C-alpha cells in the first residue's frame, strides 16, 4: 500500500466528517482521485479468481505454471514501468493529466483482456492495466494530499488506502458473482473498465493540484483552486504557506548538488546518513513482499484449491476471508501505528507471519502424506481416460499427489473423497474427462488433493493475514515516508518503491513454479525462512521513527554511534543533544 508522511488521527477523521457536509467539494475531490486506489486494489484481487477460469478455457494455461505466473505478474512488471514513467509525467504534465492517462491505460487493458482470444492477448492487456496501476498508485495519494485542506489531509490520504483494500474485497465479490455467468473471467476482468471510465469523467471536472500549478508559476490558477478548498479568510495564509513550502522544496533540491537522476542516486548511496535510511527503507519494502503476502492476494483461490477444495466457486467464496481480513487489518493499523510504533509493529507482525507460515507448511505436508491412494479398479472404471504415466503393474502404489505431479488429474471416490480414486489423463482432453468424472457426482482435482486438513489451512491463512496486515502491511510505507531527509525523500522513496515492485514481481512470477518443483509445504517453509531473515534484518537495521520530527530522525541517522535497535529513550539520553 502507498503511504505518506502524514498519518491521520481520530481528530482528523471527525474534522473530515464535518467538512464533508459543509464543503462536499473536498470529499468529491478525494473520492474521485481515490478511485485510482480502488482500481489498484481491484486489479490485485480480480486476477486470483479469473485465473481459475482462464485455466479452464485455455488448456495451454492449464498445463503451464509459467504461463499462469506470467498472466499474473505482467501487471506487476507494467506497474514498475508505470510508476517510473508516472513520476516523470507527474512533474511534467501534472497530477490530473497523469490520472486521466492512467484511466485510459486501465480502460484499454480491461477491454483487451475481456476480448482476448489468446493467452498472449490477456498478457498484453495485463501490461496495459499494470502501467495504469503503477501510475495511479503513486499519483492518486499525491493529488489528494496536495489538493486537500491540511487539517484533514491525513484522513483523506488514508481514505485512498482504505479504497485499495476495499477494491480487493470488491474484486472477490465480483468474481463470485460471475462464477455462473457465461464468459466468467471476461466479465471479471472487463468490468474494471467501468470505474476507470467513471474516474476519467469525474477528473475532467476537477482542477489540477494547486501545488503543481504554483511550481509551474501559474499562481493565479493555484489561488483560484485554493478558494474552492478553503474559506475566503484562510486563503491568503494558505497561499503564503504554499509559497514558503515550494520555495523551501526548490532550495532543498538544490542542496543535493546533483541534478541528473544518476547523480542523485550516487549522492544518496555515498552519504552515510542517507545510506542508513535507504538500507532500512529497502529492507522494509523487500521484506513486505518476501514474507509471501502477494502469493495470498494473487493466488488465494488457487491456495484454497491446493488445500483440498476442488470447486472454483467454493475456492472464490472462501478466499473472501483473506480479502476481508486484509481490509479490517488496514483499519486496525490506523489505530495502533502511532501508539505501538512502526518497528515494534513490524517485529510483532513478522513473529506471527513466521508462526502461521510454519503451520501452513505443516498442514500442506500432512495433506500430501495423507492424500488418497490411486485405485486400480477406480482408474479402470474410466479406462478410456487413464493417465498414461500410471502403471498399476509396476507394483508402485500411487497417491493423489503422485497423479498430479505426473500432470494428470484426480477423480475422487464416489462414496468418500478420502478413499482411493482414479488418476485420469493429462489435460489435452480435459472436458470429456471432467464431465465423465463429475457426472457420477465425484470431485475433479487438478491443483490439490482431497483432504481433512483444508479447514486448518483456511484458519492458518486467516491468521497469517491478521498477523500481516496491521504491521507489515502498512508500516514499511510509513517508515519510508519518515526516514529520509527532505532533500532526498523523492529519490530515496522512489528507489524503495521500485525495490517493493521488483520483489513483488519475483514472488508472483515464481510461486506456482515453486509449488510444482519443491511442493506447497516446502514453498511456505521457504517464505518462513525469508521472514526469519527479514525479522533479523529489521531488528538490526530499522530504527523506530514514531513521534520523531524529521530533524530528529536526521540527527539520529547521522550519529557516529547509531544503532537501530537502541530504544528511543536511551538514544535521546546518550546520543542526541537537547533541541
UniProtKB/TrEMBL annotation:
Protein topology in the membrane: Multi-pass membrane protein
Transmembrane parts of this sequence: 29-54, 66-85, 97-115, 121-144, 156-178, 184-206, 277-300, 315-337, 344-367, 453-479, 491-512, 524-542
One Pfam family hit: Sugar_tr
Compartments, record wording: Membrane
Keyword Transport set for record: yes
Keyword terms of this UniProt record: Membrane, Transmembrane, Transmembrane helix, Transport
Protein name: Putative inositol transporter 2
Species of provenance: Dendrobium catenatum
